[in-house]
Amino acid sequence: MKAYANTPFQQNQDIIQPVLENLSNFYRLWIKYVSCSGTYVITPINKQQCNFCRLIRNHPVGYQRCRETARRCVYLDPHRYHLFPCHAGLYVLAVPLQGERGPIGALATGEIRIDDGTVDTGEVLQKVADLGLNRERLSRYYEEVPVKKREEILLLGETLYAISNCFIRLGSAQSKVRQAEIENALLESELRALSSQINPHFLFNALNTIQMFSYLEGARRTPDIINALSNLLRSRLDVKDLLTSLRDEMEAVNSLLFIQKTRFEDRLQVVIDIPDALLDARVPALSLQPLVENALIHGLEPYEGIGRLELQAEVQGRDLIFHVRDNGVGMTPEELAKITGRLNRKEIFEESGEIGMANVQKRCLALFGEGYGIRIKSEKNRGTEVTLRIPFTTGDGRKNEDFIGR
């Protein structure tokens, strides 16, 4: 069963956090939001995990069992809440969360002892005896766990179920708003393109004719430049999807760099550091090419020395990060503040050189939400670094966990 990240709960963490805080403090329980992999994504800050659970989770095997219990919470029946015993003898209250496309996590509690008179301390300790933990400490920590009445826990289950439905509906509404923003952004791009549109078939036929004549007339480098230009223009005119593979995006970037290195001759050094394992990653179409082009035109073209451009990709946590660095003319603090302010306000810039970067920012915010998009660092005469952050996913649904350790 496929699970989905970037959920309504992660998008609205600033709203959900105080709700979990208040409920955790009121019920004297540790209530958290867990991801589909069993990771604790949102936990109360002012209510700590009980010593009993913490001691068990400090053991590698105990940690894996706790994580499997958390993961189990996600894939239960999403139309009701569930109360069941965990591997260590405490009870877990779980509310599975189901989005429009599948499971998106669960709200779950820990550290519950229910006053039903059926379980004694010895039976509980026997469940974790194979971990070899200090039995005296375990017993003492178990007795510290507050005892709850079943009716109280069932009432909390009703409450969490109602809260989860509210946030899922909120997330669905936000998703529709983002989709409308994407469609509006694409419409604006199409309208701008109409004002200067050239029939693509005419354009490529003309370039092929020029390429053929240059070859017949003995121009050795010209056909390669025309071929790179054709590939670059095709990548811009033939965009059908919002996301593309990093492999395809790099084909456009390499065509651009081939042309620019011909222009710059010996004045340009290019370093690309993108592991092959990342080439299947999904990225917004035409996202890297404008950043590279911006570095070349505004950073390195006015620079009098040997220009250096670096393009690097790396995985940080759940995200894919791109760095575009140049050693060019850079920006003053005032210039940097002006551009950063416009990016943060999601404006479309008037200056033609900035439209591509603003368009990338606008699409990233619409596709992925706050926290993603472009950040810029620059110093006058010291160069510029543009960082693009997006969620890391691949065309086959793999996420960053599949690449850790490679």
Report on the architecture of this protein.
The protein has 406 residues and is an alpha+beta fold. Helices cover 49% and strands 19% of the residues. The protein has 13 helices and 14 strands. The strands form 4 sheets. A 5-stranded antiparallel beta sheet has the order 2-1-5-4-3, with helices on both faces. It has a 5-stranded mixed beta sheet with strand order 9-11-12-14-13. Strands 6-7 form a two-stranded parallel ribbon. Strand 1 (30-34) and strand 2 (40-42) form a beta hairpin. The model is unreliable at 1-6, 194-198, 347-355 and 401-406 (pLDDT under 50).
What structural keywords apply?
406 residues; alpha+beta; 49% helix; disordered N terminus; disordered C terminus
Layout of helices and strands:
Elements: H1 8-11, H2 13-27, E1 30-34, E2 40-42, H3 51-57, H4 60-74, E3 82-85, E4 91-98, E5 103-110, E6 113-114, H5 121-127, H6 135-144, E7 147-148, H7 150-194, H8 200-216, H9 222-237, E8 243-245, H10 246-264, E9 268-273, E10 282-284, H11 288-300, E11 307-316, E12 319-326, H12 333-344, H13 352-368, E13 373-379, E14 383-391
Parallel strand pairs: 6-7, 9-11
Antiparallel strand pairs: 1-2, 1-5, 3-4, 4-5, 8-10, 11-12, 12-14, 13-14
Brief summary:
The chain has 13 helices and 14 strands.
Instruction: Report the count of strand segments.
Output: 14
Instruction: State the major sheet.
Output: 5 strands, antiparallel
Total helix count? 13
Q: What is the approximate shape?
A: elongated
* Helicity level: 40-55%
Calculate the mean pLDDT score and round it: 79
Strand order of the largest sheet: 2-1-5-4-3
Order of H and E elements: HHEEHHEEEEHHEHHHEHEEHEEHHEE
Gap between N and C termini, in Å?
A: 25 Å
Tell me the radius of gyration: 28 Å
What is the strand content? 15-25%
- The secondary structure category is alpha+beta
| Low-pLDDT runs | 1-6, 194-198, 347-355, 401-406
